[in-house]
Amino acid sequence: MVKLEHLILNFDWLFLGYTMLVIIIARWIQIKILSTLLNFKRKSIPIPNSFQTLMLIAGLRGAVAYAVSLETIGTYPNANNIITMTYLVTIISIFGFGAILEP
Q: In terms of DSSP H, where are the helices of 1-103?
């Protein structure tokens, strides 16, 4: 069990911005490459760009990443930074990107 009482959240807006940008770009590249490969193979039913955008926005979640970041406590000297950024990216992706999706 991980104890969070001693955890001090370190926060840097610039680092958060870079982190979000890198995550979005990496996710976009991943979706574009895989969708292009699938569209090349399945020409009868291609994946449209609108659905690729939906996969980009809806696929950004962080529950597993947050759980893994908690395992860095006591292992890495910058564990507080890792946990804080993972927590903030998770919150932004769930509430920020989730708010722009239609039901």
A: 13-41, 49-58, 63-70, 79-91, 98-99
pTM of the model: 0.69
What are the structure tokens assigned to 26, written together?
A: 């990496």
> What is the three-class DSSP state of 82?
helix
pLDDT in tens, the chain (103 residues): 555 555 556 667 888 888 889 988 988 999 999 999 999 988 888 999 888 888 887 766 677 787 888 888 878 887 878 888 888 888 888 888 777 777 6
Contact 89, 23 (CB under 8 A): yes
Measured distance CA(85)–CA(10) in Å, rounded: 8
Instruction: Give φ, ψ of 21 to 5 degrees.
Output: -65, -45
Q: Is the dihedral of CA 66, 6, 72, 10 positive or negative?
A: positive
